[in-house]
Design a protein that fits this description.
Layout (H helix, E strand, L loop, with lengths): L2 E5 L2 E4 L4 E8 L6 E8 L6 E7 L4 E3 L7 E6 L4 E6 L8 E9 L2 H4 L7 E2 L3 E6 L1
Length: 124
Amino acid sequence: QVQLQESGGGSVQSGGSLRLSCAASGYAFSPYCITWFRQAPGKEREGVATIDMNGRTLVSDSVKGRFTISQDNSKFAAFLQMDNLKPDDTAVYYCSTGPREWYECRTFQGSRYWGQGTQVTVSS
């Protein structure tokens, strides 16, 4: 059974930083990627960043230059370093995964398994 667990959310002031972690277990499929999404109240879910098993990464234009995605393959974990946070970054952040090719990952498609989410709140 695939399980994903996010951690690291919290409340920060504008300009601050947070590092989200996603611990994954129970999967053995390949290829795969781990993707971070977020959803703000009243808004659609938005793909934020993705990383595949070979370390290829992509971040959305809305967070480029501020967010960095990385992973620890040995621990089946992925991380989202968020710097220079803005109030518009306030959302519930989810990590997701699934068996998929890079062309699906980089268009934020094909997520099959999801964590429960972690709240990020940025105040001005």
